[in-house]
Each structure stands twice: as C-alpha cells, then as structure tokens.
Amino acid sequence: MCRGRVRARPGPSARRSGRTRLEGPRLMLAVLAGAAPDGDPNTLARIVTPGCLLIAVDGGAGLCLAAGLTPDLVVGDMDSVDPHTLTALELRGVELVKVPAEKDFNDLQLGVDEALARGATSLTATGVVGGRVDHLLCNLGTLQTDLPVSVVERDVTIDFLGASRSGCVVSGDDVTFSVVALGGECTVSVTGARWPLDRAVLEPLSSLGLSNRVADDDAHIAVHRGRCVVVTVRA
Question: Are residues 132 and 21 in the same domain?
Fold first, then answer.
C-alpha cells in the first residue's frame, strides 16, 4: 500500500527479520511474485529455476506457498499477508523485510531494490498484472530497469526491450502481440507479422503497434531507439 508518508526508500534490507540464505554467484535470476488477483501458482512454479532468488512481494507470499515454494525473502508492509501465511513463513525461517504501510513507493519497488542489491542480473515477475489499472501502470514503470525483465502470467507475457535487450521473437498462431512505447518515443521494426513496421516511431502509449499477429513462423521485434514493452496474449 502507498499512502504518502515515507518518502525515501530504505536501503535494501533496512528492516528485516530472519536470515539471508542466498549469496554470491547463485543470484542471477530473481523471480518476483506479486499479489495481483490473476496470479497463478502453476505459472510461478514454471518460471522458478534452480538457484534463482525468489522474492515474494507482500501478499505474493501466499502465491509462493500455493505453488509449493518457499520464498527466500518477503518484502513489503505485510498488509496483504494473512496471519496463517505469516506464521508458516516464520516457521520456515523466511527472511522478512518490513517497511511502514505509509510510504511513497510500492512494495514491488522494494522487491526490485532487493533483487538488484543481491546481484540479480535478470528479473522475471508474475502476479503483477490484473486488478487496478493504476497499480498495473506503476508496476510496469517500476520494472523498467537496465536488466533484462519479463513478466509472465497465465495468458500474458510482457517483455521489456530497449535497455539490455534490443529485440525479441513472438511465435504461435494463437497469440496477439502489441508493441507499446514507455517513457518516451521509441523506434521499432517488426518483421514476420501481419502488419510489419520499418523503423516506425512510437509515441508513448501509442496504439500504432497494437494487436498484431504472427504471419510467418516467427515475428521479430527490434528496438532501434528508446524503450518499449512487447505484450503477448495467448488465446
């Protein structure tokens, strides 16, 4: 929850209980589990890989337990973590990074900060799409980092391009994909699609790249300038 009181984000793990269990070179991929209504335990279980850092963002702790997973740490003000889940986490010795409920940043930002501080080189998030539109927009803004970032939900994948990734590939006859600029103009090319683009300039949140389909075996999206997201929706 964000209520406009604490303005400066605390340093990573400024307030914590439990113990740090992952260090060093294991911290490559960080998986962030959020508490959005559309969060799917099976999707979370699928994207977690051996050696990754699993961070539950507040109520995302329940999503982790539902997937049969124990998070390495839980971050947030804990307002969405029910007492039974909190007890289970404490019994398992899970690290808890607690912050006040009244603050000027969301819990997902804390998760991203912790992942970066612990050496993550890529981020995958789930349980961050669905529910309130304002939360979704802020979540997308929060996930704009200089690392490779993807959001994976049950029927939606969002790939962030332009910082550390210059392109991606979309496959499948049953998918629709959109290329949407974020934070400024973005120059993109799309090939292998029903509606190709050749160095098209997308204004922020422009509909020019909306609802495309794969025409060949694969559609290729390349970013020449700026940042964008590629949103792939499976039927």
Answer: yes
Domain check: are 95 and 211 in the same one? no
The order of strands in the sheet holding 29-33 is 16-17, 95-98, 73-76, 53-57, 29-33, 122-126, 149-152, 156-161, 228-234, 175-181
What are the structure tokens assigned to 145, written together? 């980092």
Give the total number of structural domains in the chain.
2
Spatial CB neighbours of 137, under 8 Å, sequence gap ≥ 6: none
Mean pLDDT (whole number) for 202-222 = 95
What CATH number is associated with residue 171? Answer: 2.60.120.320
Residue 18 — very low, low, confident or very high, per pLDDT cuts 50/70/90? very low
d(CA 61, CA 67): 10
Q: Which domain holds residue 208?
A: 155-235
Please name which of 169, 176, 170, 188 lies closest in space to residue 227, comparing C-alpha atoms: 188
Q: Please write the tens of the pLDDT for every residue from 172-201.
A: 989 999 999 988 999 999 999 999 999 999
One domain for residues 172 and 140: no
- Six token digits for residue 70: 């124990």
Same domain for 203 and 226: yes
Instruction: Looking at the structure, tell me whether residues 11 and 45 fall in a common domain.
Output: yes
- CA-CA-CA-CA dihedral for 44, 46, 47, 48, to nearest 10: 80
Closest CA to 124 of 148, 154, 94, 155: 148
DSSP string, 93-141: T-EEEE--SSBSS-HHHHHHHHHHHTT-SEEEEES-SSS-HHHHHHHHH
